[in-house]
Write a structure and sequence with these properties.
single chain; 168 residues; alpha/beta; 3-stranded parallel β-sheet; two-stranded parallel ribbon; 5 helices
Length: 168
């Protein structure tokens, strides 16, 4: 929760209008008020990043003419290879990685004529997996690779794609 808000404030201070999407409307209302108090213009839509249709609709609502996309959704739960079921891993990957692909594909048309940036939040689990966060570790590694593939594909079109990691 801290890295997404920090990025929203930073981009807001640079004059970007912020569009936020999350499952929890109360959190969104809190962040919208906090951004407003910091002088940042924002709006929000409620959606589950694991539900492609909800995410597309929410991006249509708050992501018109997107210059920058920050994908910061993840299922953060303790899990292990021994205890997790394959169905749960696939469900988590839909949020951790599938939602990122949905979001990228949804905003890409608005970036093609003017360029833009796509940032996915990653973490140390992408490069140093934690067996106690089995699903998240796999998801962050997959997200890293998704971002790097998109970076190579979209760079010639003026779109930068990268990973932002926070520690602490």
């Amino acid at each position: 929760p801290k890295i997404g808000y920090a990025l929203a404030r930073r981009f807001g201070r640079e004059g970007f209008e912020i569009g936020m999407i999350a499952r929890n409307e109360e959190h969104l209302q809190h962040y919208e008020l906090s951004l407003w108090e910091a002088g940042v213009s924002s709006s929000y839509a409620v959606a589950d990043a694991g539900n492609g249709e909800q995410l597309r609709k929410a991006l249509d609502q708050v992501g018109k003419n997107t210059n920058v996309l920050i994908y910061n959704a993840a299922v953060v739960e303790k899990s292990s290879a021994e205890k997790i079921e394959a169905e749960k891993l696939v469900s988590d990957l839909q949020v951790n990685v599938g939602g990122a692909l949905v979001a990228i594909k949804q905003v890409l048309p608005s970036m093609l004529d003017k360029g833009g940036s796509i940032l996915c939040t990653g973490g140390s689990f992408a490069n140093a997996p934690n067996p106690n966060y089995f699903s998240l570790s796999i998801g962050k590694a997959a997200l890293w690779n998704l971002a790097m593939c998109c970076a190579k594909e979209y760079a010639p079109r003026g779109i930068q794609v990268g990973i932002v990691s926070g520690y602490g």
